[in-house]
Write a structure and sequence with these properties.
The protein is 41% helix and 14% strand. By secondary structure, it is of the alpha+beta class. The chain has a single domain (8-223), classed as BirA Bifunctional Protein, domain 2 (2-Layer Sandwich), CATH 3.30.930. It has a five-stranded antiparallel beta sheet.
């Protein structure tokens, strides 16, 4: 790529939004959001649609303004004590073609002042999905260990997410991978500096991080019965 998608103006908008998280300010600055956040990220999604099929033909770059890969800026405040109407970060998720839900395996880009990362995996899967992943680890322990211990995965990604305090029911508490089986999330993240996103080759660097994380996502995808 010869032109950067992301500029300092994106982060400046998010910083100001954090200090002025109300509808009046947002409406007065909506054009800035569209110009420096939404439209550049939709172009990023479109352009990432070129290398994505090489990683997996079953993952989708959807550049629609609503309902696609770009997360909405509006927060769902129906059940939240925090009634701030807007997110102070921007997020993109490239999901499986069979999935209509964010809680499925995917590749993710998080943009927030002071916190930029590429994410992979599945967050908060339902009980049935979680069981399938745990069963796949029990059935293929060598492959799971190989993925987690391989280079350059270990030098690129850090595992994250929550875990159970006790071994899950139905699984051997003495299993050598019991700490993996206790996971409630199967996610990992690769950190970037904010100014790295301003470079024309950032989309290529993000694509490379996805390639490095692809075996992890492939394992999870196949574990829940979806094609890779």
């Amino acid at each position: 790529m010869t032109t950067a998608h992301i500029t300092p103006e994106l982060f400046q908008f998010l910083r100001e939004l954090k200090e002025n998280n109300n509808r009046e300010w947002f409406q007065a600055n909506k054009k800035r959001y569209e110009t420096h956040v939404r439209e550049p990220l939709l172009r990023f999604i479109t352009d990432f649609g070129l290398p994505l099929p090489e990683i997996s033909p079953h993952y989708v770059a959807d550049a629609r303004r609503n309902g696609g890969s770009l997360f909405r800026i509006n927060r769902d405040i129906r059940f939240s004590k925090d009634k701030s109407p807007y997110k102070t970060s921007a997020g993109i998720q490239f999901r499986h073609e069979s999935s209509k839900d964010v809680h499925a395996p995917g590749f993710y880009l998080h943009l927030e002042p002071g916190g930029v990362f590429a994410g992979i995996g599945i967050w908060r899967p339902d009980t049935r999905t979680l069981g399938k992943i745990r069963d796949a680890i029990v059935e293929n322990p060598e492959r799971w260990q190989q993925i987690l211990s391989g280079e350059p995965f270990t030098t690129t990604y850090q595992l994250g997410g929550d875990s159970l305090k006790r071994p899950p029911k139905g699984y051997d508490p003495n299993h050598p991978l019991i700490e993996e089986l206790k996971r409630k999330d199967f996610t990992a993240s690769a950190q970037f500096r904010e100014n790295e996103t301003f470079q024309p080759n950032f989309i290529d660097r993000f694509a490379e991080s996805c390639r490095i994380g692809a075996p992890y996502v492939e394992f999870l995808t196949r574990a829940i019965g979806l094609p890779w």
